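User: Round two. Same drill as before: sequence, then structure, for each protein.

Assistant: Same drill it is. First protein:
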Amino acid sequence: MVKHVILWTLKEEFSPEEKAKIKAGIKEGLEALQGKIPGLIDIKVYTEGLPSSNADLMLDSSFEDEASLKGYAVHPEHVAVADGKVRPYTASRVCLDFQV
């Protein structure tokens, strides 16, 4: 199994209210991919970090293997969520992919 974990920070220009809506949209969009992408085992977005956090939200996903992760990256439904709900609003992205 392969884990795919991403931490994002949102752009500073957004108000706390806007950030809450953006995070909800990212969570809804990404979690809706469950069952639609071959090899995707589980996908969860966490939007409420503790005050000690220095990221705004986290994606925690699991794939059958590295080939499934590569397929997810280019899958049209994932690309639509990334281009429409994630990339326009994020300032930074940190990713760690690893084998379990």
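Second protein:
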Amino acid sequence: MIEVVIKDRCSGCGDCVEACPSDVLALGAGGKAVIAAQADCQTCLLCELHCPADALFVWPETDRVAGVTAERALASGQLGAFRRDHGWGEHAATHTNQHWRMGAIFERARLQAMDIAATKTARTEEGCST
């Protein structure tokens, strides 16, 4: 769940607001991102991914607020880690985004599931005919 916006880092670009599928973030009176509907956060991390200033901190807990403060988020060393580890923006040259490969993995899992289902069906039919 989105925990905090680090105001000193936020440039007010609005990229996080546009990226959020649940309208959790909004641009506040000062032109910087604010958490407008924290309980609606899906923990999808799109806001963090799209924030070029690394001003957002999303905690993996999805059903409750963990109470992470700006100070704790800064001390964690995790601000920007999601963008970096996924090869976004300035990190594209050093961290290759491999998400495109997931299609092949999902296809393999789908084919395995079909094989398992066919095997179960065949066993059931064999058991009924004898």
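The chain has two domains: 2-95, 98-130.

User: Perfect.
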